[in-house]
Amino acid sequence: MILAPDTAPDSFRHPHLGEPDQIWCYRDKHGKPFFYVCRFVSENGGKNIRPLSCWQDKTGKHQWEWKHLPAPRPLYGLYSLAWNPYAPVLVVEGEKTADAAQQLFPEMVVVTSPCGSDAAEKAIWDPFKGRDVFIWPDHDQPGREYADAVAEIALAAGANSVRIVEVPDEFPEKWDLADELPVGVTGSRIFQLVKEAHPFSKDQTKKDLPPVSPPDWPFRVDEQGVFKKVETTKAPGETKVEWIKVCSRLDVVARTRDSGGKSWGRLLAVTTREGQTNEWAMPMELLAGDGTAYRAELLKLGLEISPETRARYALHEYINDASPQEWARCVDRLGWHGQVFVLPNQTYGNGQDERVLFQVDRVSDDLFRVKGELEEWKEQIAKLCAGNSRLAFAVSAAFAAPLLHPASLEGGGFHLRGGSSIGKTTALQVAGSVWGGGGVNGYCQSWRATSNGLEAVGVAHCDTLLCLDEMSQINGQDAGQTAYMLSNGQGKSRARKDGTGRPPAQWRLLFLSTGELSLADKVNESGGRASAGQEVRMVDIPADAGASLGIFEDLHDFDSPAALADHLRLNSIQNYGSPARKFLERITTNPEHLTEQLRRARQEFLDKHCPRTADGQVTRVANRFALVAAAGCLATAMGILPWGGDEALKSAGTCFTAWLNQRGGFGSLEEQAGIEAVRRFIQAHGKSRFQSCNGDYDRPIINRAGFVRDGQQGREYLIFPETFRNEICKGMDSKRVLDHLKDRGLLIPDSTGRPARVVRLPSFDDPIRMYVLKNEILGESGDD
């Protein structure tokens, strides 16, 4: 037998049924035919389905025969499934329905299994691993049974999620997506049914069961709330039974604990007066006190607690003694945990048959909120970023934040530097709308607030984007320390009350910043000096794109930069949060494939923009830019960003080049900083601290740093080693600076190669060692 023949059959004519009315080709993941399914219509209108496959006989001869391949058989649509790894999957019944559904849902991959609704288990469903699967059943009992069977098989194959469309009862019997729409039903209604598809879980019947109650469980829970059975004895032999109300409806959904079997808790679900359900993973340690802390949090969530003292005790007892069947893992920070990604109110990815929850001692007031629709965000915000390198880069950076972990890269930031009112904050607002909003400044935060609560901010944004507006709000020393700690991803070590060490807070994030000064200038403003490590961790990008439009390059038919900025700002208030959630859904479906995609996309950027001879600092920064480019390309391929295929690569390349040009090339930043420090010192002090060896000075030199003389190769500056180490190279490695000067040919060593030469100088009886620098250290000026 041959699974993938080289050529199609010469004819599809059946010896008894004649020419087929329709032919469907089953292909492998490379597009090569597996086999064919043909439909024949007889004169009386009857229909026959026949498979046609290629077989090899004992002599090695290949021939097409009217019979099926043995099970398991490939899916119809496998080729599209392989070439669209992040697209959601729609399963229907039958090849004709699959073709029709593919026209209705071009953003999805539509598949079906061969041999009808009774043979779902005879198909190969392995390609569903990590995919989001939707199933549209035919509107009859066999269709519903097929949908249930496929749903169970898909979950067993490792599908990320499975949902079944609930076909309305008023639809005609046996109706499917290949039929004409029922009377009064629009295409929009069909799309809405898919959006409203119910999640399927093989454990869902178990999860719908009430908690297993302990013996003599005195509580009951219904729509009216939680009630406790209380028995009181009024006289010997006379017992009164009453049900007291404890609180409004509160369900204890699951027991929680961390991966180490500690930090136990309860997942609580509060049903508010408006019918909304709010969940909170409550640490059990809050039950240790009088309960004020946890009651306060439950009240925030909408729980109504009876004011009676006995009701408060009963609530304590109810939460403590409840025995839910479901179990969940708890975590105390956001972001990646294994192959799942945790946000405050939602978890993405496969949790290995149990939920993973964010558990904290108080209800978090986060900004990871959702408002508006993804399509509206794409049209009103993302579409207008195309052609504007800084905006497109900022949006791509938002998608890059959760990719730091899969790419095994350290955290870091990008700083948009430029004058006032050129659109820097607009870029931050647009990028922030990817993740959320709803705060006073949308998703953005101020540098001042971040520096005051640095560790809390870091943990609250782990593996996500942090937007910091206007660095001028803090002093230079704090700015440098904040940038370093945010990038480094670790807080300070602190002691517990008993003196033992508390584990330091940890995080991993990408941040965007704005300001009128660079980090180096801001640190210098406070009398300090920015280290190369700080500047590599927070990369400075000129915010002005150079088109005389501030941060913009393409106004997209708006009258002015201000008009476009206002449009983006207003729409970022109305549409936010959905892009990141859709992105998280996709990247958690197939982590192994994601890692390989990132590697290829990053390498493409590095091959184009960063030579292998570049300094290690440049390579580190280039890798971060490459991740941003890869993230933008990935979001574009997923249909989240409505851009051309190379928009993300172009914007990242433009911003990287802008950073590189102002930096001064691919060399070491410490090398440039050291040489620049020497140059600035000589230029700043000149004759005031450098005595002439030629005798042409007419005043005493106070705090002499060295001498200046005319040597054989031109003017030379002779510097005392102590001055060089303690003043010029303060805060730097003076030996490395000397090495850089020597490598550049700016230092004249002695005959043995040592950096200090033995020289004779005025007012010194004996020769002394000095560092001798050429006049070229001053660059083109050459003056004192």
From TrEMBL:
Top-level taxonomy: Bacteria, Pseudomonadati, Thermodesulfobacteriota, Desulfarculia, Desulfarculales
Record-given protein name: DUF927 domain-containing protein
Pfam family, one: DUF927
Residues of the DUF927 domain: 219-503
Species of provenance: Desulfoferula mesophila
